[in-house]
Amino acid sequence: MAAPTGPAPLPPPVLVEPADAAPPTADPAPTPATPPLVTAFLTVVKPAQYVDPVVDRILRHRDTADALVDLFKDLAQVHDAFGKAVAKTLQKHAPDDDGGVLAPPITTLRTLLHHNAAHATAVTAALAAQAERVKMAAHVDAWRDLKAAQKRVGKVAQNLELAETKVEAVAKKKLNAKKVDKANEKLATARGAWEAECRASFPVRFRPWLQGERDQMTDGCD
Questions:
Q1: What percent of the chain clears pLDDT 90, i.e. is strictly above it?
Q2: Rounded CA gap, 1 and 205, in Å?
Q3: 99: exposed, middle or buried (C-beta count within 10 Å: 0-12, 13-18, 19+)?
Q4: Contact 181, 171 (CB under 8 A)
């Protein structure tokens, strides 16, 4: 006698979307309201779009230390805001059923987000300290450049003094007009080089540092 057979296996379940559900779109239309920072970070394809504008800013102004300091401050604000937003979101949303099938992945996700939030908020202090180091290094470089500029201006000033001396010597000898004109041309060239070197060596960003001694160092430039 044949053994009784069990019931036929059930077919695999088929997921059917509700009829009134809107079909998913690849590129949803942007909403006028700005989403929270944490939502934007978790949904956008390229989160770097929040940092790229800051990087572009420093690349446009990489010759100034203040812009680099602003870069660190902006990055610190982004990390701090993101970390706080994630932590706040995790406090509001908890798994409804700790023993359900979704509890393990939800717990793993919450652990990962907590780690990321703590790391993001910790970056703020590190960036602030780095900004101070860059600021101090920039001051040292600026003063080094200033000393080099003083040396270059001094050489040009010597050329100007030599040209003035030659003009005085030619004027005393009362030579012909051609030699006088030639000496005056050399004097004008030397004076032009002096003024150009002054303006190149002491740009506007150095003026506040040199306010007390500007007249002595850039005499004849203005």
A1: 0
A2: 103
A3: exposed
A4: no
